[in-house]
Amino acid sequence: MMNKCDIGMIGLAVMGENLVMNMASKGFAVAGFDIDQKRVAEFGATRAKGLDIHLAKTLGDFVDLLAKPRKVMMMIKAGDPVDEVISKLLVLLEPGDVIIDGGNSHFPDTMRRTKLVESYGLFYIGTGVSGGEEGALLGPSIMPGGSPQAWPLVKPIFQAIAAKTADGSACCEWVGENGAGHFVKMVHNGIEYGDIQLICETYQIMRDRLGMAAGEIAEVFRAWNHTELDSYLIGITAEILAYKDDDGSPLVDKILDVAGQKGTGKWTGISSMEEGVPLTLIGEAVYARCLSAMKAERLVAAKAYHPAIKRFKGDRIKYLDNLRNALYAAKIISYAQGYVLMMAAAKTYGWNLNLGGIALMWRGGCIIRSVFLGKIKEAFDIDPDLANLLLDSYFKKTIRQCLGGWRKIVADAVRNGVPTPSLASGLAYFDGYVTAQLPANLLQAQRDYFGAHTYERIDQPRGKAFHTNWTGRGGTTSSTTYNV
After folding, report:
1. Region 464-476: what's the mean pLDDT?
2. Phi-psi sector, 306: left (phi>0), alpha (psi -120 to 50), beta
3. Could you give the CA distance from residue 365 to residue 129 in angstroms, rounded to a whole number?
4. Angle of helix 316-349 relative to helix 214-224, nearest 10 degrees?
5. Is residue 79 packed enough to be buried (19+ CB in 10 Å), middle (13-18) or exposed (0-12)?
6. What is the pLDDT of residues 62-79, one digit of tens each?
């Protein structure tokens, strides 16, 4: 009789299958199941053949393959399918067993599911898994949260299969209770949206303003990947731009400019509004994808307005240096906003997030991995209560060095009609953040004028509300609440 498996995987599409292969390569016995039995049979006859991987034809048989306490991981489509599988597992599993959702579930769903599963005496983990199919196979970044009692049971497996940093640290650590893991993964994806959009805007400036061909732009990104911009996304951008189609021309020039998205960026933006955190750069990155989808309308509008971007005729080397500084400074803003959102959510939901540890988890395996993350880890090591990355000494120094070039690039783009929503919104956020006196005094006066929403005074204690009868006809009754 065979020994029981250490862990089981439900869902054997690309990510699930590669995670199974990863687990098996680290010496774990793995059970597998998928409702698509053709997929199961193909996996068993090919990649899983001869390995300590055991595939089941039914969910019941799958559960029977697992050693107690059973550890069941799902890599399936987020939403109703997760709830359906959980309902079936609750009948088959026993108290003390662990259910793990490794998909991109929305964190409120994970909070709800954690409560449900725990009510049956079982444990639940909602974990972000980042790195795509290659990361799943060779080592992803893993961000688990949920039932704290479950962490010791899965920690040896998760940390064994996770990516490792240069010093051998696993890019996987416990994030926090209930939905914390999926929240951190959601913010990761939001920052990913921002990073990608910033790179794309930089690419468009080189293409349309500097008149550079894809191969030339590839060389610039390749060179930048040996600077402070060293990252996975910069690296693959260079490879993409250098890739040739069958006819020898750049493949990227033949790809339709309509972007897709799966919802995590949108969730990040919505969450920021609920928390009252300005996530402007990432929000613009999401909207840029939405605007790209309006291809037919954009074609009509282009014919109606005939926009023409003039070629730059000055010092290209200096321009590219300014562009690199703009990209790096805006990247800092993207991460700063994401971290402020995580801090706000931690207070709202009672999570004890290790902010420096999160940066460590993102240093390997995940899509936003970069050398830059080490600076974030250092910032929170120096000051665990740091309110914003922009207040850290390294980032203050860096922003000051980059600011002049950043302003020049955004101003040049505006003057010449190159859309830079994220580069520009990042700069606007910075300018607003460092401005001691914003025009919100006028805004509050307007709200009080038309809605009696009250205001505070600079010569009175904070929290004390005032209302003015601006017209002499409004009376003295004011709103009962005051919200900043």
Report:
1. 86
2. left
3. 9
4. 60
5. middle
6. 999 999 999 999 999 999
Q: Which two tokens stand for residue 374?
A: 């080490």
Tokens linked to 227: 């600077």
Q: What is the pLDDT of residue 166?
A: 85
Helices 107-119 & 180-204 angle (0-180, nearest 10): 160
Q: Is 480 exposed, middle or buried (0-12, 13-18, 19+ CB in 10 A)?
A: exposed
pLDDT tens column, 283-336: 999 999 999 999 999 999 999 999 889 999 999 999 999 999 999 999 999 999
Q: Are 478 and 468 in contact (CB under 8 A)?
A: no
Question: Which residues are catalytic, by number?
Answer: 185, 192
Hunting for tokens 């998760």 — which residue is that? 158
Mean per-residue pLDDT of the chain = 94
Residues with Cβ within 8 Å of residue 252, at least 6 apart in sequence: 214, 240, 241, 243
pLDDT digits (tens, 9 = 90+) for 321-330: 999 999 999 9
Backbone dihedral angles phi then psi of residue 8, each to the nearest 5 degrees: -125, 150
The single residue listed with the structure tokens 């980032």 is 395
Average pLDDT over residues 352-362: 91
